[in-house]
Amino acid sequence: MSPPVAPQGWSRWLVPPAALSVHLSIGQAYAWSVFKPPLESALGLTGTQSALPFQLGIVMLGLSAAFGGTLVERNGPRWAMTVALCCFSSGFLLSALGAATEQYWLIVLGYGFVGGIGLGIGYISPVSTLIKWFPDRPGMATGIAIMGFGGGALIASPWSAQMLDSFGTDSGGIALAFLVHGLTYAVFMSLGVLLVRVPRTGPGARGGVESAATAAGARSTPTGPQVSANTALRTPQFWCLWVVLCMNVTAGIGILEKAAPMIMDFFANTSTTVSATAAAGFVALLSAANMAGRIGWSSTSDLIGRKNIYRVYLGVGALMYASIALFGDSSKPLFILCALVILSFYGGGFATIPAYLKDLFGTHQVGAIHGRLLTAWSTAGVLGPLIVNWIADRQEEAGKTGASLYGLSFVIMIGLLVVGFVANELVRPVHPRHHIPAPRQEVLDVERQQPESA
Amino acid sequence: MSNDSSQSPPDRRGLIAFAWLWVGAPLCYGLYELVQKATQLFTG
């Protein structure tokens, strides 16, 4: 499938909603917990078993983003969004069949394996295209899309809960809910498939598209140094950014994973205790900060530079953790404020990384490079909860209560953020020996962007 | 060809509005639900 080239007069402002239609859909993954209790009671599952589809989905997200990135670059965003749509929706349809027939393995296979491929391909599908359309504001452009991934759970969580209330929480009701999810997401994501376009390249770009897009900054032909995805893996810059992302995500997950019990524990021994309802409100507020950070901080990176914004995420993030550890239990507003800032940096770190990659490796295969860097996310997804939960359990066994359950975790988080800060400081421009020679680069781009109907 | 390139490009404002409404409406619903829940921190 040839990448869909923008016709004359195509607006670049049609590309972010195309990306959002995919990211808002696949972001549903973080609302999987809504289905856990009904599945456990309807199919007699344990909590660990009911988490399997989500866990497999996240593993498949990382794998398909890492290994499918080159295919996405070669075949273009419409192909990638079509694959994401088919996999994500058919994952739900398979799950519906699994729930209807009470065959849990079909739900794991459908939602986890098939749907997980849709998550990974869908996540990276619009990144490279957005950066090409918005070379003047790549941070803002990718921030909009990646904000959608955070927003997807905000939509799906109440929507799925209401659906289960209406259809019932027995296996038939769950099957119907999965079916409606699959069909609705297929329709919703189709907007992205239909709207997404890559900017024109070469002489054909003159005229309408030139005035509408290029004048606004869109550029299909890469400018500046370009590095292929395979070569990028051999550069220290890639691995420095891998460490940066991994440390930043681990620090964010450290709060996110145990947010509700954490705020309750912190103020358990004070006069201002926090109820379970208020703790749920705190978790919701953290989600808002996560989302706001994705668009806000990522757009700010266009103004102050990628390296500087990661200095803020990692340096100020460490200070926020230190503030919580030292004074958090004495002031609820301070605790909430610091946690919100940390979560906004967590979201910002995700959203800014594609633009950082573009700055270092160019736009040539930035989607594929981004896909491979997401393995840092998978690692952090294991590391963050492991640190916080393991340490909290050991501290509890040692007879500690309240804020002291988390003190050591926070010290470790500060250490990880410092490691990330140092890795960010080590990032330098990629050595010219890794660059793709200019003539070969032009040939590759012309090959990749043949118009659909020449 | 020169005529094609001299034609003014079609007006896409309607399509842009539709596309942003398509993604904006469910996002607003999600944000509304989020705000409802987040206020529990101060009232719960």
From TrEMBL, chain A:
Location in the cell: Cell membrane
UniProt keyword annotations, A-Z: Membrane, Transmembrane, Transmembrane helix
Name of protein: OFA family MFS transporter
Protein origin, superkingdom: Bacteria
Signal peptide: none
Coarse class of the protein's main subcellular location: membrane
Keyword Transmembrane helix among record annotations: yes
SUPFAM superfamilies (alphabetical): MFS general substrate transporter
Keyword Transmembrane: yes
InterPro entries recorded: MFS, MFS_dom, MFS_trans_sf, Proton-linked_MCT
Domain Major facilitator superfamily (MFS) profile span(s) in chain numbering: 1-427
PROSITE patterns, A to Z: MFS (PS50850)
One function term, GO molecular function aspect: transmembrane transporter activity
GO cellular component terms attached to this protein's record: plasma membrane
Coiled-coil intervals: none
Membrane topology of the entry: Multi-pass membrane protein
Membrane-traversing stretches: 12-32, 52-72, 79-98, 104-127, 139-161, 173-196, 238-256, 276-297, 309-328, 334-357, 369-391, 403-423
Pfam families: MFS_1 (PF07690)
Residue span of region Disordered: 207-228
